[in-house]
């Protein structure tokens, strides 16, 4: 007679249980982001500035907070390594506030395309240190 198996590997039903809340949250955020009239590829610098401004207010709208957060983090994530160097303990919220401040200080340097403005703001705000002198 064979010994009973003691395999304690999670079953498919227990493995997916932990992923469900994340999937639902992602679906809700995506649905909210896509329900507005502006999509990321069409967002102007003015749109992004408005989203960031509203998101920075105490009790700011959830929609503007998620749109601006997704946009800024999305642009950051598409940049090649070494183009932007975030501080070790940087948070997404701090990144939003820093980009908003850059936009307030550099309005003449805005590009009509929001992604280009956010890229420039990230590069200037979080510039990587230069090569050490040889």
How large is the count of helical segments?
5
Q: How does CATH name the architecture?
A: Orthogonal Bundle
Order of helices and strands: HHHHH
Helix content: 55-70%
Beta-sheet strand percentage? Answer: under 5%
Strand elements, count:
0
Query: Separation of termini?
Result: 74 Å
CATH class value: Mainly Alpha
CATH topology title: 10k-s Protein, Hypothetical Protein A, Chain A
Report the uncertain regions: 9-40
Mean pLDDT: 76
| SSE class | mainly alpha
Topology:
Elements: H1 12-34, H2 45-56, H3 62-78, H4 92-105, H5 114-125
Helix pairs in contact: 2-3, 2-4, 2-5, 3-4, 3-5, 4-5
How would you explain this protein's 3D organization?
This protein has helices at residues 12-34, 45-56, 62-78, 92-105, 114-125. By secondary structure, it is an all-alpha fold. Helix 2 crosses helix 3 and helix 3 packs across helix 4 (92-105). It is globular and about 40 Å long.
